[in-house]
C-alpha cells in the first residue's frame, strides 16, 4: 500500500512542478461552426482552414448526430435481438429430446426443417426463413476447413444442414466453390444470426460472400458480448488456471471473488459463469466420455462422423441451447453496460465485414498475427517491469517513479 501512495504522491508533485499555462489551439472556424452551430467562434480557433467536405448533421450536435445514426442502423435489428430473448427453450429442448430419441435427424444433403408442432414430419428447404436464428456449424478438422454439418434453432423449429461430402461421400474439393457453403437466407431480408464465436460460422456461410447488393443479415457473437464484461487478458487467463486452490490457502478469498467475476471464452465456460449450478447434459456416444464426444470433430475422420451422425447432430443442437441460455443472460447485462446504440451498431457492423478470399488475405493475416504477438510481448514485459519496481519500492520504502 505504501508503494501505491508513493506513486500517487510522486505523480501529483510531478504534475505541479511541471505546470505551465499554455493556450490550446482549437479547431478552425469552419469546423467549429459545423460542430457547435450555436456557440460563437473562440479566439483560440486555428488559422489553418479545412477544405474537406463535411456531411450534414442529422441532429443538433455531434453527440446526438451519432446517436440518431446508430439508432437508424440498429433499430430493427435491436427489436430482433430483444425478441431472441423470448424463445421457448423448454419447448425447443423437449422437441430436441424427441428427435434424438427417435433418431429423426434426416441424413440428406442441404437444409431440413423440423417444426416443433410435428418434428416427425421434417421438410426439405433451401434455407431457414426465420428472422432470428441461433446457429452453430461443425467441420471435420482432419478433412479440411469446409463445413460438415450445421444446426440452427428458430422460434418454432429446428433446422439441420448436411454437406454433400458427408452424405454422398464425395471427394474433398481441390478448389472450394460457393456450392460448398451454407445458405442461411435471403440477403435482402433483415435477419439476426446468433452464435458463440459466430465469426467462425459466418466464414462458412454463402451470404457472407454475396456483397454486390448489400447484405442485411447480421451476426451477433455471444463470445464478443461476454469478453468486455467478464473476459480476461492472456496473462490473467494463465493466473486463472494457476489458482485452482482450496479455500484454506492464503489469498484464496480474493482469488475466489475475482474468479466469480470473470470467465474464460469457451461456450461451456461462459455458460458456467451464468449457470454455475446447472449441470450441462449432452447425449452420449455409446459409452464414450463427454470429452471424447466434444473432440469427435477434431480427432476422428469423416467416416466416424457418418457412423455417429444422429448423436453428433443432437450434440451440435445442444450447443445451440447453451448459446441461447448464454444470450438470455448476456443481452440484459450488455444493454445495461453499453446503452448507447453506437456500441450495438459497432458490434453488428464489425460482424459484417467483407471476407477477402484472394492470396493477399493470408499475407495480411500472418502480418497481423505477428504484430499482435509483438505487442502482447511488449505489454507483458512492461507490466512485469512495473510490478518489480513496485515490489522494490515496497521493500526499500522509497518513493517510486514510473514512466510508460
UniProtKB/TrEMBL annotation:
One of its GO terms (molecular function) is DNA-directed DNA polymerase activity. GO terms for cellular component: gamma DNA polymerase complex. GO terms for biological process: mitochondrial DNA replication. SUPFAM superfamilies: Ribonuclease H-like. InterPro entries: DNA-dir_DNA_pol_A_mt, DNApol_Exo, RNaseH-like_sf. Residues 51-334 form the DNA mitochondrial polymerase exonuclease domain. This is DNA mitochondrial polymerase exonuclease domain-containing protein. It comes from Caenorhabditis nigoni.
Amino acid at each position: 500500500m505504501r508503494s501505491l501512495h508513493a506513486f500517487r504522491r510522486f505523480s501529483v508533485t510531478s504534475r505541479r512542478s511541471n505546470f505551465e499555462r499554455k493556450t490550446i489551439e482549437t479547431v478552425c472556424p469552419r469546423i467549429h461552426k459545423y460542430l457547435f452551430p450555436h456557440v460563437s467562434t473562440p479566439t483560440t480557433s486555428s488559422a489553418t482552414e479545412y477544405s474537406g467536405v463535411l456531411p450534414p448533421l442529422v441532429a443538433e450536435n455531434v453527440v446526438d448526430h451519432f446517436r440518431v445514426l446508430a439508432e437508424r442502423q440498429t433499430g430493427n435489428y435491436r427489436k430482433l435481438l430483444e425478441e431472441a430473448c423470448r424463445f421457448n427453450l423448454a419447448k425447443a429442448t423437449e422437441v430436441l429430446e424427441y428427435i434424438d430419441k427417435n433418431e429423426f435427424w434426416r441424413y440428406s444433403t442441404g437444409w431440413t426443417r423440423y417444426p416443433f408442432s410435428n418434428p416427425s414430419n421434417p421438410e426439405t428447404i433451401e434455407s431457414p426463413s426465420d428472422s432470428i436464428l441461433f446457429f452453430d456449424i461443425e467441420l471435420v478438422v482432419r478433412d479440411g476447413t469446409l463445413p460438415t454439418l450445421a444446426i440452427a434453432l428458430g422460434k418454432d423449429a429446428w433446422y439441420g444442414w448436411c454437406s454433400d461430402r458427408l452424405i454422398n461421400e464425395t471427394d474433398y474439393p481441390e478448389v472450394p466453390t460457393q456450392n460448398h457453403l451454407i445458405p442461411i437466407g435471403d440477403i435482402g431480408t433483415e435477419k439476426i444470426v446468433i452464435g458463440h464465436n459466430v465469426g467462425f460460422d459466418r466464414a462458412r456461410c454463402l451470404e457472407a460472400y454475396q456483397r454486390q447488393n448489400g447484405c442485411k443479415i447480421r451476426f451477433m457473437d455471444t463470445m464478443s458480448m461476454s469478453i468486455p464484461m467478464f473476459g480476461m487478458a492472456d496473462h490473467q487467463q494463465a493466473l486463472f488456471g494457476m489458482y485452482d486452490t482450496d479455500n484454506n490457502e492464503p489469498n484464496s478469498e480474493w482469488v475466489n471473488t475475482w474468479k466469480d467475476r470473470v470467465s474464460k471464452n469457451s461456450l461451456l465456460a461462459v455458460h458456467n459463469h451464468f449457470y454455475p449450478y446447472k449441470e450441462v447434459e449432452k447425449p452420449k456416444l455409446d459409452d464414450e466420455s463427454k470429452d471424447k464426444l466434444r473432440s469427435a470433430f477434431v480427432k476422428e475422420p469423416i467416416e466416424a462422423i457418418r457412423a455417429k451422425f444422429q448423436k453428433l447432430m443432437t450434440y451440435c443442437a445442444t450447443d445451440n441451447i447453451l448459446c441461447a441460455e448464454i444470450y438470455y443472460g448476456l443481452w440484459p447485462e450488455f444493454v445495461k453496460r453499453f446503452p448507447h446504440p453506437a456500441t450495438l451498431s459497432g458490434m453488428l457492423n464489425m460482424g459484417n465485414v467483407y471476407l477477402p478470399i484472394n492470396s493477399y488475405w493470408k499475407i495480411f493475416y500472418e502480418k497481423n498475427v505477428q504484430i499482435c504477438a509483438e505487442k502482447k510481448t511488449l505489454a507483458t514485459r512492461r507490466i512485469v517491469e512495473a510490478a518489480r519496481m513496485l515490489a522494490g519500492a515496497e521493500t526499500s520504502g522509497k518513493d517510486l517513479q514510473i514512466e510508460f
